[in-house]
Amino acid sequence: MTIAAPKTTLQAFLQLPYIEESPAWEYINGEGVQKPMGGGKHSTLQKGLVAAIDQADTRYEAFPELRCTFGNRSVVPDVVVLANNQLPLDESGDIISAGIEFAPAWVIEILSPAQSQTKVTGNILHCLRHGSRLGWLLDPNERSILVYQPDRLPDLLFGADQLPTLDEIALQLSVETVYGWLRRTS
Amino acid sequence: MTIAAPKTTLQAFLQLPYIEESPAWEYINGEGVQKPMGGGKHSTLQKGLVAAIDQADTRYEAFPELRCTFGNRSVVPDVVVLANNQLPLDESGDIISAGIEFAPAWVIEILSPAQSQTKVTGNILHCLRHGSRLGWLLDPNERSILVYQPDRLPDLLFGADQLPTLDEIALQLSVETVYGWLRRTS
User: Fold this and answer.
1) Rounded Cα–Cα distance for residues B111 and A128 (Å)
2) What's the domain count of chain B?
3) Which of A72, A138, A180, B93 is deepest in the core (most CB within 10 A)?
4) Has the ipTM of the complex gone over 0.95?
5) Residue B51 scores a pLDDT above 80
6) Burial of B6 by CB count in 10 Å (0-12 exposed, 13-18 middle, 19+ buried)?
7) Is B7's Cβ below 8 Å from some Cβ in A?
8) Radius of gyration of chain A from its Cα atoms, rounded to whole angstroms
9) Distance from B13 to chain A by nearest Cα, in Å?
């Protein structure tokens, strides 16, 4: 179950000491909400997506659980994909510890058991409306992926359907390839 | 829980003797799936929506649980809204017992506990891609309504947000008005 904190402002939320505990807390519609635990399927899909995207194109990098704060919301998507020239660096050229303050180019969410799909959908729509060009919503129970792109209805993809990625990333993935990563026995 | 029948064709599915039992069965992606039981909130919201839409405009009529078969899918949305001149009539001018074979102008689904939101979303997207002009997806747990319209991202509405209806229907409803129908004590 997710737990809600009292109504607060975004600024006050970001000062709370526990929001980076695992699972992380998000700030949505004026209140803090803790993400649910993901579990084994969630963890495996998250790892597989990060690896596949990192290998596909050296100009982009995938990050699990990176805080994204913009448009009066602070979300921690399961995976965000950023262009190299978007990475927030400190003076020594290292990636900073804090999250980003803009909409990532591509955002991926993986439904957990007992997670509100409506809440996750709302987060993806928030990203798209603030500049994200692509959103994926994985539903491991249905073995489907809902694909969100700006200014159009989402597409619900299954099986051999090829997944749209950012135009400039040459990554060929079908839905069944992604869920095939869950299999461990021959 | 929903129950899946063996893979079959749409024609064979429509001959099955039990598909109009309650809850009704739907035919999605090549297999029959029984809708889950709705429960009290579902029943109350369905009744309220039908009454509100029927009162709003005499040129349109709302129907609960009307089978809609088109595009190799057979779905039974919680509410569909049809123009009077679209109603399927028999020789005596009565409404026929069978469902319709086209996409309804407006389709409404109400999430039930344990229902797959992805499956319901897929049904709404199917309707929009085949000619429906409006889709609502109610999530009673979140007290929100996702509004689908052609060729654009859905909108996630809450609280005092006014709900888009078909342009020609003068119906003023906010999300909180709809969920207010659930309250029975003062």
Assistant:
1) 24
2) 1
3) A138
4) no
5) yes
6) exposed
7) no
8) 16
9) 21
Within a domain: residue B3?
no
> Does residue A27 lie within any of the structural domains?
no
Q: Which among A105, A112, A109 has a CA at the least distance from the CA of A124? A: A109
Nearest to A135 by CA among A105, A156, A167: A105
pLDDT value for A181 = 97
The residue among A78, A71, A76, A84 whose CA lies nearest residue A145 is: A78
Q: Which two tokens stand for residue A129?
A: 């409306």
Is residue B91 within 8 angstroms of chain A, CB to CB? no
Q: What is the Cα–Cα distance from A156 to A121, expressed in whole angstroms? A: 13
Enumerate the residues of chain B whose CB falls inside 8 A of the CB of residue A129.
153
Residues of chain B positioned with their CB less than 8 A from the CB of A139: 116, 118
From the number of C-beta atoms within 10 Å of its C-beta (0-12, 13-18, 19+), residue A37 rates as middle
Q: Is residue A18 a part of any domain in this protein?
A: no
Residue A1 pLDDT greater than 50, yes or no: no
Q: Is residue A64 part of a domain?
A: yes
CATH of the domain at A96: 3.90.1570.10
Query: Is-cis flag, bond preceding A23, omega within 30?
Result: yes
Residues from chain B that touch A153, judged by Cβ atoms under 8 A, are 125, 128-129, 148, 150-154
Provide the residue range defining the domain that includes A149.
36-180
The verdict on a CB contact (< 8 Å) between A118 and B141 is yes
User: Which segments of B57-172 does DSSP mark as H helices, in order?
Assistant: 117-129
**Residues A123, B128, A131, A137: what is their CA dihedral angle, to the nearest 10 degrees?**
40
A4-47 pLDDT, tens per residue? Answer: 566 889 999 999 999 988 899 999 999 999 999 989 999 999 99
Distance between CA A87 and CA A60 in Å, rounded? 10
CA distances from A61 to A51, A54, A107, B37 (A): 9, 5, 12, 44
Q: Report yes or no: A2 at the B interface, CB cutoff 8 Å.
A: no
Cβ atoms B66, B35 nearer than 8 A: no
Q: What is the spatial distance between Cα A174 and Cα A123, in angstroms, rounded to a whole number?
A: 24
